[in-house]
Design goal:
The structure is a single chain. By secondary structure, the protein is of the alpha/beta class. It folds into 3 domains: about 190 residues, no CATH class; about 260 residues, Rossmann fold; about 200 residues, 3-Layer(aba) Sandwich (Rossmann fold). About 35% of the residues lie in helices and about 20% in strands. Strands 7, 8, 9, 10, 11, 12, 13 and 14 form an 8-stranded parallel sheet that branches. The protein has a 6-stranded mixed sheet with strand order 1-2-3-4-5-6. Helix 7 packs parallel to helix 10 and helix 9 crosses helix 10. The longest helix has 21 residues. The radius of gyration is 27 Å and the shape is globular.
Length: about 700
């Protein structure tokens, strides 16, 4: 096996025997293997403790001592690089060791317990190290083309590991499995076998020669899910530590800092400010909003002074429960006994449902407790007609004369001095009737002369109806252009960055652009099938580590019941998105289909999208249908047609890594499912170049 070339590694990263870079290091310790093997354990332990971000207890020092002894014995005579406690920021965790040797990247996770455990490795241990390896493979530029091998190393909890149980000359016989991208499936070994494993690597040669110095300096570009991002931000990690670090994505940090600057200025000067944040699809607008909420601009009190508001009930429920679970586990780790109900109450002050915020403003005429509110998907706020209808039916207010944006501004306007509103503006996501669009926010500002608006010029491009009210505010000297409020770089998954362009072109029937976009999706597999079982099987086979997958369907897909898909069954998004493979209510079971309403704003790694007869391709374009009683009816309202098209836009863009699309074959004996209702859609998607999955 070809050994990686030796290099003089950067002095700031590799001091003798340790890593102590002036910038935050990815690893708490890094050294060339020759240096590591010759170093005293106390020297390595000192470097680890010096770079640690928390107080190190004796139990941790003992575990490190065991790992160091095992690794020094296993790596003697080899060349390459070792990193200990390597940061996996997207997951908020650290890999025990990453070793570059033999032309491969070895990701090692050490577990205490008898060595015999390796024969019956715990599934959660294998999944953990697999996730670490996949994170490197997918998000670390130096590992994209590398062979990456995850291993769980079991060793005795008491005595230090002895010499290798298998001499280096004997080959390791574990059945290695390598995926197409060069990432291996995880294996478990005993600590004494590590030397033999490293000396006799998998049979396939490395797919790239590793430059150790370049690998150490390579950019790391994680793209966390919104759940991962919320967890990290709530745990007080910075947005910079969990997002991509490449120069093209600095806009995320710039936008956050710009809004904080405007908010602090409003606070100092006693002004009222509203900011509109736009961005390309997947640019991270929600991430900016969560980051702002965790900053809690006006701090100093016991209660948070900034709140993230969303009308997306499933998103709020999932984020709240994910944060509450994490906070409860952190408290337990600190030895604190707290009730989950109390933890949930604290989380509720950070993320709220916008309708609850609105209702509190109706009940209590005083200013809200918060000085800064962030409205996610602000363009989906209700127009006057829908708001008035709701107030009449549900709140017994017969003559309510304000749209939802106007009323929400009026609530924040109750503050005598300063207040800040941040509107996060999405495009092509309207899936409900009565959504006002961002122009209603701008029109409403005319009645609140103390408010200054800060916008990007791109707002008028994404929301054409906003142009006229923007010009009126500009004429009054109350609208200020600010390009820092536009997120120009997509933060979507490393694989899905071109997926939105494909979906957009396909739904707009721009076949040429759709084919061109599909050609750029080399790392994002999409398959088309008429066999639902085959689609489910494909999705399960693609998933690795803790990758989450699920079944999706339009809320209008009423004739999928013969395929055991009933969209009338209301799923619990908390169970669906957060629970594990052992829970029949989770997405992993591929039994309960989530609709556009339950997944908007959230993501899966892999998805199986089922396509019913509600949206059909025909020679004249798309046909739009709603199932009423015993037959399909034609949808004629333009707004309702747009909502249905957007529903499929949402469903087709939920998967970060890959997608299976199931178009039913139909049934000639069922007039509601005749093959001709489905065949043109299947042929259209196939003609775009999607590979067909059979059987």
């Amino acid at each position: 096996m070809t050994q990686p070339p030796s290099h003089d590694l950067p002095a700031q990263d590799l001091a003798p025997g340790a890593s102590a870079a002036p910038r935050l290091p990815r690893a708490w310790y890094a050294a060339e293997l020759e240096v590591f093997v010759r170093s005293e354990a106390s020297q390595i332990l000192g470097a680890l403790a010096a770079n640690a971000e928390t107080e190190i207890v004796q139990e941790q020092r003992d575990a490190w001592g065991d790992e160091i002894e095992v690794l020094q014995a296993a790596l003697e005579g080899r060349t390459g690089l070792i990193c200990l406690e390597y940061n996996i920021p997207r997951m908020g965790r650290r890999a025990d060791a990453v070793v570059l040797t033999g032309g491969a990247v070895w990701v090692l996770e050490f577990k205490t317990g008898p060595s015999g455990v390796a024969a019956q490795a715990r599934a959660e241990d294998l999944e953990q190290v697999w996730d670490y390896a996949l994170d490197l493979k997918n998000f670390h530029a130096g590992s994209h083309a590398a062979t990456v091998i995850p291993i769980v190393v079991y060793g005795d909890a008491g005595p230090r590991a002895g010499p290798p149980a298998v001499p280096p000359s004997e080959p390791f016989t574990e059945p290695w499995v390598r995926d197409d991208d060069g990432a291996y499936r995880p294996v478990a070994i005993a600590a004494g076998d590590l030397r033999a494993v490293l000396a006799g690597p998998p049979p396939a040669p490395p797919i790239a020669v590793l430059d150790v110095a370049a690998w150490l300096e390579a950019s790391y570009q994680p793209t966390p899910t919104i759940i991962e991002a919320a967890r990290a931000l709530y745990a007080r990690h910075s947005v910079a530590s969990i997002a991509r670090s490449d120069a093209g994505a600095k806009n995320l940090h710039v936008t956050s800092e710009r809004i904080l600057h405007l908010a602090r200025g409003a606070m100092r000067q006693g002004e009222k400010t509203i900011c509109f944040v736009t961005g390309v699809p997947g640019a991270g607008k929600t991430l900016v909003g969560l980051n702002l909420a965790t900053q809690r601009v006006a701090g100093g009190g016991a209660e948070p002074n900034a709140v993230f508001l969303s009308g997306n009930g499933p998103l709020v429920a999932v984020l709240r429960e994910a944060l509450a679970q994490d906070e409860w586990l952190r408290a337990r780790a600190r030895g604190q006994i707290v009730r989950k109900g109390r933890v949930r109450k604290n989380v509720e002050s950070f993320i709220q449902n916008v309708h609850h915020f609105r209702d509190e403003g109706l009940r209590d005429p005083r200013p809200p407790a918060e000085r800064m509110v962030i409205f996610d998907e602000a363009q989906r706020a209700w127009d006057l007609r829908k708001t008035a209808d709701f107030m009449r039916r549900r709140k017994r207010q017969a003559n309510f004369q304000r749209s939802e944006p106007e009323f929400l501004i009026s609530c924040m306007d109750r503050h005598e001095d300063w207040a800040v509103i941040v509107c996060l503006v999405g495009a092509g996501q309207e899936i409900n009737t009565g959504e006002a669009g961002i122009q209603e926010w701008l029109r409403a500002l005319a009645g609140f002369p103390r408010w200054q608006a800060h916008v990007s010029a791109r707002l008028a491009e994404t929301e054409p109806g906003a142009r006229e009210p923007m010009e009126r505010l500009r004429a009054d000297g109350r609208l200020h252009d600010d390009e820092a409020l536009h997120l120009a770089v997509s933060m979507r998954s490393f694989r899905a960055e071109h997926m939105f362009a494909f979906v957009q072109a396909a739904l707009e029937l721009d076949e040429g652009s759709a084919r061109a976009a599909l050609a750029r999706l080399a790392r994002y597999p999409i398959v088309l099938t008429r066999n639902l079982d085959a689609a489910k099987r494909w999705v399960r086979q693609q998933a690795r580590g803790s990758d989450r997958y699920g079944l999706l369907a339009s809320s209008k897909a009423q004739r999928l019941k013969p395929h055991a898909i009933d969209v009338r069954v209301d799923i619990n998004p908390v169970h669906w998105f957060l629970h594990g493979r052992e829970d029949t209510r989770s997405s992993y079971y591929l039994e309960d289909a989530a609709t556009e309403f339950q997944v908007q704003g959230l993501e899966l790694d892999w998805a199986c999208v089922t396509w019913d007869g509600d949206l059909r391709r025909s020679g004249a374009g798309w046909e739009f249908h709603d199932f009423r009683g015993k037959r399909w009816t034609t949808v004629r309202q333009e707004a309702s047609r747009r909502y249905l098209l957007n529903a499929y836009r949402v469903l087709l863009t939920r998967a970060r890594q890959g997608l299976a699309i199931f178009v039913p074959p139909g049934d000639a004996g069922d007039p509601t499912r005749r093959p001709e209702l489905y065949d043109p859609t299947f042929r259209y998607l196939e003609a775009l170049g999607l590979p067909v999955l059979t059987g």
